[in-house]
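Quick bug: GNAT family N-acetyltransferase output formatted oddly.
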Amino acid sequence: MSNEAFDDRYELREFAPGTDEQGAPDAATDAWMHAVGLGFHEPHPNDEVAALMAEAFVADRETWLGVHVRRPLPGSVDETWPAGTFAWFPKSLSWGDGQAVETQAISAVTVRPTERRRGILRRMMTHALERGVAEGYAVASLTASEGTIYRRFGFGCAIRERAVRVRRARALPFLAPTTGTVTVVTPEWLADGNARAVFDRFDARTPGSMKRNTSTWPIVTGLRNGDGEPAKDVRAAVHRPDGATDADAVDGYVTWRVKEGSGRDQDTVLEVVDLVYATDEAYLSLWEFLLSIDLNDVVSYKRSRLDDPIVAALGDNRAYDVDHEEDHVWLRVLDVPAVLASRPYAVDGSIVLAVSDTMGFAAGTYRLDVVDGRGTVTRTAADDSGEADVRLDVADLGALLIGSVSPVTLAAAGLVRATDPAAPVLLRAMLTPARAPHGITYF
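Here's what came back:
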């Protein structure tokens, strides 16, 4: 659809969320929130929760887009609500070595069904990415509600995750003893800075970890449910290493709730709300604790990484079942030299990448030289037609970026092209992280 046709029917408005003198969402913010709720089938929050949400949007420095129908029909929500919504805000992505890159995090993308296939999403995405480049972001990020939408805009799936279940009756004892002490605490104690301190340590050491939104913390610590209402059924526990006694020594925590089964064949399930660990010892000990809790049949965890060490630790590894696996973090490279220079590398070497990008932001041919684990990038051609060891689309560069996706695998899938099969092998060795990427942040 042409720009003229879009501009004739719609008005694109960029604005920052705000509140009125009473702390409630202002009129534009309230209308935008209604439109997002419609898109994701969510009820509009009550006044208290709406005020908390608006406060969090402001704290996270969000920028919003709304696409408004210029000539709404009488009685239609189009008179006040946008037909398309889009948000972005800064969110750091950890490389796992204590360093991070700031990403343009994208969220709340909706298009009303009555306005589909009229160019709304493309206009919002193009506008946002252009603004991202202008604001100096090297990469954009998102977590998707659907897995087929974003590749056409240059996003690649960089991290996948699993929803798993461990059956208690067959899980214990672990094959190796755990260490440290697990203590039950209140969600309020956890929320009073202690959870964030553990997460900061997890984030610094974990490739693919991303900082959390302001509104996430009351939910993961057990103070509120996902709808913003107070939670009444969440419990919490922390892990300390051997010999430690003070709060600063906490190196892991878990929050959970139990859902009782109904009927003879229904399991009672302990659902993990949040599980954050700064050490492998904390992760194992917290799992052992969860599997020791009586009056439930199964422990369910929806954020498991693909190489979960619990599989190896279990007394019977058949107690571990994968319910579902899906995409989690998607990345879109905007500045190839900047993002490749920001991350660490496992081995030294040189490789030339030809990157195609239909939107134009990252197109080019680039030489990556790694010395002592740090990379420098030289652009050798303005497009992807230059001499190169590896050729790939910008979406596949985003998929490879953290190191959880192998260029050898993408070569086998026909997405990475190389004359010499040794080139993807070298690139895989260079990109391999010290630890498995693990994203536990949604936005």
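Actually, after a second look the formatting is fine. The CA atoms of residues 178 and 320 lie 19 Å apart. Closing.
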